[in-house]
Design a protein that fits this description.
With 672 residues, this protein is mainly alpha-helical. It has a domain at 4-171. The protein has helices at 4-27, 35-41, 74-77, 79-86, 91-95, 101-108, 147-150, 158-161, 229-232, 308-311, 363-366, 382-385, 414-417, 451-454, 470-473, 508-511, 556-559, 618-621, 635-638, 660-664; strands spanning 388-395, 398-405, 641-645, 648-652. A hairpin with a 2-residue loop joins strand 3 and strand 4. The longest helix has 24 residues, at 4-27. The protein is flat and about 180 Å long. The termini are far apart.
Amino acid sequence: MLSAGIRASVLVNFRRIRGVWLFLAVAGTGLLFSAPTRAQISPGPLSRAHQAWNGPTQCTFCHRLGGGSEKFRCLECHTEIAQRLAAHRGYHAAVVNPQAAEKDCARCHSEHNGENFQLIRWEPSLKGFDHSKTGYVLEGKHAGLACQQCHNATRISPAERATIKMKDLNRSFLGLSRDCLTCHKDAHQGQLGKDCARCHNFNDWKTVTGFNHSRTRFPLTGAHARVPCQKCHKPEADNPQLLRYAGIPFGRCTDCHADPHHGAFKAACESCHSTVAWKQISQIKIGTVFDHSRTKYPLLGKHADVQCDACHKGADFNLPLAFNRCLDCHTDPHQGQFVARRDGGDCAACHTVDGFKPSTFGVREHAATTYPLEGKHLNVACAKCHIPAVATTVVGVSTVTVVSTVYKIKRTACKDCHADIHRGQFAGPSDDNRCEACHTVHGFVPSTFTLARHNSTRFPLTGGHVATPCGECHQARKPPGSNLPAPYRFANLTCQECHADPHHNEFAARMQQPGPQGKPQGCEACHSTVSWTESLQFNHATTAFPLLGAHRAVACMSCHKPPNLEVTMKNVVFNSAPKACHGCHEDPHAGQFAMAGSNPECSSCHSVERWKPSQFDHDTRADFALKGAHANVLCTGCHKNVRIVEGKPVLFYKPTPKDCAACHGPSVPKQG
């Protein structure tokens, strides 16, 4: 595209020409001009390509007069461009306005700019040119080619050469055909026509994406579709570089394939075979060409799918075959384990021609053996018990390894198949790992080991233990990552084996005391299996604080208080219970009777039997003996000094007046 300045220059130059020719029309066409005059009339010298038409007398060669606007005659000279515009072909047809074609020429090709001015200018550059505007998009490998690789004189046909005005055809961008063979050599030498794009693409010549063999006279079906092209399309004998694609015979199979039957069958190959697979017996049209059921050995079950040459070696169908017994063709996978049977190990006793697996030997047949299947064993897969065994056999000088499933099993104890989940706990002489003593074939769980049998052990179940699930005691106490089994044999039968000591060894000495059987009593020194919370065995009188009087009716928790406001005695420290009165009881006297530096001694006035009445002896412990009528006066009759201490009323006994007037008033008569 030309810049705006160049387009403006072109318009100014042509306006000058139009003014000059108006002047000539008046002055006469025969007037001669001098050189200076010509320089003033012309808008500038022409480029080198148009030098033949330089000068004021040559203007009408390119410009048309009259009409009031600029008119150019570019297409009258450049007929090759005019032809392409008329045919709507090429780059110019995409960028030129058909209604003002000649005017659009000056938009890109400016003249009168000097002899060395380039008439063809590329915007933005030759390398940046958008080739898609020519109507031929550069795709694939074409996108990376340099312009001169295609646009050169050798690619232009003789017919196009005659129409191009440019003398140096290597500089021209016209005259190229879009046919592949314009630039590329025909590798097929005319066998497949000239339209290469029917089969090939611009990315990779050898990848034939557009060709569909099914549209030819020989569609590829079955196994033919997987055959490489070179298998059929081979080089010509006289031209090894040329692959043959036309004139290949294909009417009969034998045009390409040798007859493996050597003429034994006169019918065409396709009467028994198809292109899917040559050796598949299922492709033979049974009943139309060859009916195997008319032979001595009809093909039934899986035999109908066997390839012919599996039995008829070398495709020799006249060779006699043995077929009375399965072992005539098949090897014995059981390595003679059933030869001793009455039928001599006939395969048909357990298998059919419909398939070797599954075997027809089922639960009913297994019941006739020395090990009938019962319970859970009914659903066990055969391969779980009858596992492959490896045996070595010496054949000549070689050792042959044979793998065969074992069906004759001599040992039938549970431990022969099952792992000992108890890890030898019952492997002793008395048990000998006899699983059936506690389990049945109907299920490993639940065990048949009953409560009555448990009572015959070293640990009979009594009290709360009777209702305890087995897994509570017999559970694997294993560290993370180990695989220890649940214990059933306990060396230690004390309570601590299963239960944690809630007293944190507080009563260790008591627990070590021997019981009736001479063994340490343990927890049973206080508790029993009937109930843990009822310590019927514990006698508080044996402690340093026997329970007497009112203390006998006090709940344990009242003295043995749980920590942290707990509601159970699980974490109580029993030895920490106080023994002095003030440890449990508040002082209702607000310290009136406390000795200096110590707590009051409640027992001097009160007893554990009851708090009231007090045991205080007023005659001996006070300096005011109660005699006469005073002996029957209530304490509060004289002791009336009540004070509020920490929000509670407290009766203070001291000081109490001793004068009669203090209680009886001044009118009391004097005695004798």
